[in-house]
Specification:
- There is one protein chain.
- The chain has one domain: Heme oxygenase-like (Heme Oxygenase, Chain A), CATH 1.20.910.10.
- 79% of the residues lie in helices and 0% in strands.
- It contains 11 helices and no strands.
- Helix 7 packs across helix 8, helix 7 packs antiparallel against helix 11 and helix 8 packs antiparallel against helix 10.
């Protein structure tokens, strides 16, 4: 069994929770409220900026040129999604640049981005890559699952098409291949740390969508 197969199997209950949580279930059915999706788009735009930074930082630490190119291309792709897909939704939902700038990252978004950037900065390269993988893989799995049942007039079709696309699948497969290759040459300590990073990022994916569903921002706990 490959490392990525092991990682997915080890987090099976968490992956199932992501697939069946209210946010993704209602997204699949096309019943997710516009207010919830609007909040998600704002937070996802914040997240993708941080995710691209973590990818670029990790790329700079790669020792082989193909790995630098893979991660750098993914960083560029994250920014492209933010500008194209999110840009379209920002217009559709009437989110001006000023309104976006005035909406800070939620706690869940900030926590996730901080974890990825910290991992990119100080963890072994293999562990940083494992931390980045869930965003690719989970989005593709969810996108494919929704695409298989989505109605023709689905209100969030552009989102589904993006993450169920062949282009995105190729990017995901590239990250899977990279992660498995790194794990195959890693010692047991590094592999264990890679599993921990994969699990933690998967948890952050669940928390991010749950936070958006609850419209949770950055509330002061004692206000």
């Amino acid at each position: 069994m490959s490392f990525t197969d092991e990682a997915w199997t080890a987090t099976a209950s968490l992956q199932n929770a992501i697939r069946t949580m209210p946010f993704t279930s209602e997204l699949a059915a096309g019943t997710l409220s516009a207010a919830t999706f609007r909040e998600y788009i704002i937070q996802d735009a914040h997240y993708l900026e941080g995710f691209a930074r973590a990818l670029a930082m990790t790329a700079a630490r790669a020792s082989e040129a193909p790995d630098i190119a893979r991660l750098a291309d993914s960083a560029n792709g994250a920014i492209a999604v933010e500008r194209q897909l999110h840009g379209d939704y920002m217009i559709r939902f009437g989110i001006s640049p000023e309104a976006f700038a005035a909406t800070p990252p939620s706690r869940a978004c900030d926590h996730y981005v901080a974890f990825l950037i910290r991992s990119a900065a100080i963890d072994p390269f293999q562990v940083a890559v494992a931390a980045l993988l869930p965003c690719f893989w989970i989005y593709h799995r969810v996108g494919q699952s929704i695409h298989s049942v989505a109605a023709a007039d689905h209100p969030y079709q552009a989102w589904i098409d993006t993450y169920a696309s062949e282009d995105f699948e190729a990017a995901v497969q590239g990250m899977l291949n990279l992660t498995d290759r790194l794990a195959a040459h890693a010692n047991s300590t590094i592999r264990t740390a890679m599993h921990g990073a994969f699990t933690r990022s998967s948890w952050h994916e669940w928390m991010f969508w749950d936070s958006a569903y609850r419209l949770a921002g950055w509330e002061e706990p004692f206000s």
